[in-house]
Write a structure and sequence with these properties.
Shape: elongated
Structural class: alpha+beta
Helix content: 25-40%
Order of helices and strands: HEEEEEHH
Largest sheet: 3 strands, mixed
Low-confidence stretches: 1-5, 101-106
Number of strands: 5
Mean pLDDT: 75
Length: 129
């Protein structure tokens, strides 16, 4: 069996960019300043993450950082804030509000959010007369 580790499909790249853009808008609406860029200056690799500067919460993201790591940083920031969770769209809540949700893997027997699983048929009662 051959496994290809080629580039991501364009649909996946578009979905990731859209999701990060939506998360940035949510963070900004909650008063978090978001800065995204290349964190490599003068031969130094700067660390992405959350910080406070002059009383404001900042989220610093590296454009070369993998999608799941950027989502983890948003999750960290949101988990330390008190706010009405209804500001996060329903399709992003599982991704952001649950610490143990990985958007790429799910426990065996657990379908990803949004996947319909029909109910199991009820077992028939067997009566021996």
């Amino acid at each position: 069996m051959v496994i290809s580790f080629g580039p991501k499909k364009p649909e996946r790249v578009k979905w990731e960019k859209n999701t990060l853009s939506r998360l940035e808008k949510i963070a900004k609406s909650l008063g978090v300043r978001v800065s995204t860029g290349k964190l490599f200056y003068a031969g130094l690799k700067l660390a992405p993450g959350k910080c406070r500067l002059r009383g404001e919460t900042w989220l610093i993201l590296d454009t070369h950082q993998p999608f799941d790591e950027q989502v983890d940083l948003y999750r960290e920031v949101f988990s330390q804030m008190e706010f009405d969770h209804s500001v996060i769209p329903e399709d992003l809540r599982d991704l952001i509000l649950s610490e143990d949700v990985n958007p790429f893997t799910y426990p065996i027997g657990t379908p990803p959010p949004g996947v319909y699983v029909p109910p199991s048929p009820e077992p028939e009662d067997s009566q021996d007369s």
